[in-house]
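Ticket #4471: structure export looks truncated?
Reporter: QA, pipeline team
Priority: medium

Steps to reproduce: submit the single chain below to the structure queue and open the exported record.
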Amino acid sequence: MRELIRLFFSFAKIGVFTFGGGAAMLALLHDELVKKKKWITEEDLLDFFAIAQCTPGIIAVNTATIVGYKLKKSLGAAVATIGVVFPSIVVIVTIAAVMQNFMDNQYVVHVFNGIRAAVVAIIANVVIALWRKNIKSFWQIVIFVLSILCLLCLSLSPAMVVVFGCLFGLLRQIMLTIKDKAK
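Actual output as written to the record:
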């Protein structure tokens, strides 16, 4: 029971500080789950985050559900999911009650502009850290560059880019296997 409570509060903390959507939570997930708690590895986090992006629903909720399931099966999935959405529910209900009165306030507008800029910096920092840790071969660089081009130039959905990355990685492994058998 104690582990479930810790799981709830870890994800509630992530939920409180996740501004900017699912991608913005990646830094918080990394810090809390990989570095501090050591519940999952960086590879697990990347895999879970990729799966969460490819499945219907909110990335933060999907990621919490997957991590919770890995740690404590169905009950862990439910607890982590409730934990990550609970702060948002409280904040959204509170904001909805008072926000309409302040949306035209220039201070509020500038606060949100500042939050957006900070979220972009947080995401960039995580991307750079993940790049350094996970992109190690020429083929991974090729997949990365092609993925960026597909996202920016072709406006492909992230789910399609992940599917193409999977297929490219699988094709690369098949080519290596054929090459090894030919020797």
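Status: closed, not a bug. The export was complete when the record was re-opened. Leaving a note from the reviewer for reference: DSSP finds seven helices and no strands in the chain.
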